User: Which sequence fits this backbone?
């Protein structure tokens, strides 16, 4: 796989280090990452391996070749394709895009291969026009812009909280009390109107032979600020954190003391759904980082996405509930 390439033509590049020149003309790669890859043997000059310190001359061809770990990625599933946006079903276990060029292939790589126009939609080509991200462990609907104008409009809408994002979550507990006892009376919680199920969501529940609870007409608004946790891998509820708001509704009960929740993520903070539910006392199945029991996958699914507030006429898109989500059990 060719990650970067450049033919030396600028006089200011003459007699400069190869890694410096290639990094200068590859804005999606840092010099640190490029030098590390070059030292590992991925840098070629005029078809031959070369060290990062080699000085370059006019007309030389610099290339960075990668062979990321091969994974059997599932095929690309396009839910809806409009003139401006691709709506895809991301499986659990697949990253949205690579954070470093030598990481395993991600969903964005599949997008570029099948929809090459997406390569130029975002500021960073490796993102393939992704307008938001889902964690590797999360499944569900995700959107990629097909041109720079759509990408800018959608990114602005996400930043301004004008996007409707609904999630389904399988929690480890199904308490009979409306609130865990240690959260009752918290200033972070208040009642709110019920979360409306769209017709496709209702059809999806019917397909899974599921019936919402009789008391699913009640919901809670959780507005708990999020900030850095005790280590870099965690996020925690903390008073000096960034505002984060989630509406949650106990949609139905599942066997083995599990519950399916309907979530409306009104902000898009890192790990927001996972942290808010853990703080609330309902950690996700498959999320031991935040106190949930181990399972075959994370019990979180991006169920629906509506971008019409950013681009008129865009549909609400549903990613059907995957069977492995509803069949989740605690790992023994």
Assistant:
């Amino acid at each position: 796989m060719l990650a970067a390439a450049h033919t030396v033509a600028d006089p200011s590049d003459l007699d400069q280090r190869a890694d410096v020149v290639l990094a200068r003309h590859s804005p999606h790669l840092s010099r640190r990452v490029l030098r590390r890859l070059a030292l590992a043997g991925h840098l070629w000059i005029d078809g031959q391996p070369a060290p990062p310190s080699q000085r370059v001359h006019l007309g030389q061809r610099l290339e960075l070749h990668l062979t990321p770990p091969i994974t059997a990625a599932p095929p690309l599933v396009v839910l809806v394709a409009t003139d401006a946006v691709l709506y895809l079903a991301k499986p659990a276990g697949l990253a949205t895009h690579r954070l470093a060029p030598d990481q395993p292939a991600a969903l964005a790589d599949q997008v570029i291969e099948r929809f090459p126009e997406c390569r130029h939609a975002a500021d960073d080509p490796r993102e393939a026009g992704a307008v938001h991200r889902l964690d590797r462990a999360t499944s569900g609907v995700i959107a990629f812009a097909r041109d720079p104008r759509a990408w800018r409009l959608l990114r602005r809408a996400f930043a301004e909280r004008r996007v409707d994002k609904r999630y389904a979550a399988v929690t480890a507990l199904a308490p009979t009390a409306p609130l865990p006892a240690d959260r009752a009376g918290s200033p972070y919680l208040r009642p709110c109107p019920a979360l409306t199920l769209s017709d496709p969501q209702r059809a999806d529940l019917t397909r899974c032979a599921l019936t919402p609870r009789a008391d699913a007409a009640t919901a809670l608004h959780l507005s708990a600020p999020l900030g850095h946790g005790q280590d870099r891998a965690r996020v925690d509820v903390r008073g000096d954190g960034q505002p984060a708001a989630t509406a949650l509704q106990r949609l139905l009960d599942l066997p083995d003391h599990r519950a399916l929740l309907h979530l409306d993520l009104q902000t898009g903070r890192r790990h927001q759904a996972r942290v808010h539910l853990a703080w609330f006392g309902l950690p996700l199945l498959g999320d031991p980082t935040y106190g949930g029991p181990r399972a075959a996958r994370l019990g979180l699914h991006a169920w629906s996405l509506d971008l019409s507030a950013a681009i008129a006429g865009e549909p609400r898109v549903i990613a059907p509930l995957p069977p492995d989500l509803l069949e989740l059990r605690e790992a023994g």
